[in-house]
Sequence to fold (155 residues):
Amino acid sequence: MSDKRKELIVSAISNGTVIDHIPTDRVFQVIKILGLDQLSNPLYFGVNLESKKFGSKGIIKVSNKFFEHEEINKIALVAPSATLIEIRDYEVVDKRDVTIPETVDKIVKCVNPNCITNKEEVTTHFNVIYDENNVMKLSCRYCEKNTSKENIFFI
Ligand code: CTP
Ligand code: ZN
Fold:
């Protein structure tokens, strides 16, 4: 392919965050859990894009938005392969892979309807554990029930 065609598939942004290497089937979920659909910031996304590393990937670009610790944890829980790229004045100033935290506080609801966190105004706390198949689960510090990936509901 000639160099003429070498352009960004999804428009460059001047300031903001690029979330790259998202599994295609997680792109809309990431938009939703971060509330990006509720903002008035310019938002670009792409799905089923070619990726050397993953075969296919999704990408989200949001202008004038830089994510806080808890938001980054949310991204890590649904898209652990994601890379966060900070753009300032059109330049990449920071690029980091998200990491699944060891503990998850506040952002996820416990799967157990009888858990105190679902009965009273108690903030949730989970330890991140891995089962014998290395599948991640969130272990509630109050009721000790495990919330599996498919049951993660963000508060
Ligand atoms: N990007 C952007 N706006 C800019 C600069 C970069 O949206 N002003 C995006 C690019 O589209 C790319 C990502 O940020 O998806 C990383 O940019 P860069 O490091 O320049 O790209 P690559 O070298 O292609 O990175 P990689 O090989 O890690 O995908
Ligand atoms: Zn619980």
